[in-house]
Specification:
Elements: E1 4-10, E2 15-18, H1 30-40, E3 43-49, H2 50-56, H3 70-81, E4 83-87, E5 99-102, H4 107-116, E6 120-124, H5 126-134, E7 140-145, E8 153-155, E9 165-172, E10 178-184
Parallel strand pairs: 1-6, 1-7, 3-4, 3-6, 4-5
Antiparallel strand pairs: 2-8, 7-10, 9-10
Helix pairs in contact: 1-3
Amino acid sequence: MGKLIYSMITSLDGYAIDADGGFDFMEVGEEEHDFFGEQLRSVGTFLYGRRMYETMLFWETAHLLEHAPPFIVDFARVWQAADKVVYSTTLQQVASERTRIERSFDVDAIRRLKAASDRDITIDGPHIAAHALRAGLIDEYQPVLGPKTVGGGTPFFPVGIHLDLTLLDERRLAAGGLWLRYVPAARAHDD
């Protein structure tokens, strides 16, 4: 059974998207790409909202860039190897291989996907992740705290959600960020 992992780079004050709609909270260089690529090797499916999908779509052709460094090519190949599900009521077609559109987030379909998967699944984007979080579907939380505060926006965790989490791992990144790996406290003994 695959784990459902919620991971995003966030501001230091906990926002996944700032008040202006941005989410550039940390420079991502070679070390970060290598590290994130290693984390994603276990992933068989990415679950995205439309905006996150459009941001990540760069990786569909990044390996074709002239003079693309190996770490960019490697990360692109990891991204390309996974299936993608985009939750959107407005997106008419996808521009990447191994990708399908779903018009609504179906909690039971995610339960079935997890049960049938032998690889992990990530959910990326605070709005789409909020559905999974409220349904108790998320097995791991992996926020990456960037070295920037923004003072408002869309939080990584939805307002009103209370969780008891256990820290399993952490890593400092060269760009000043901190990757954290948490599981619900009730599940900590399983990991």
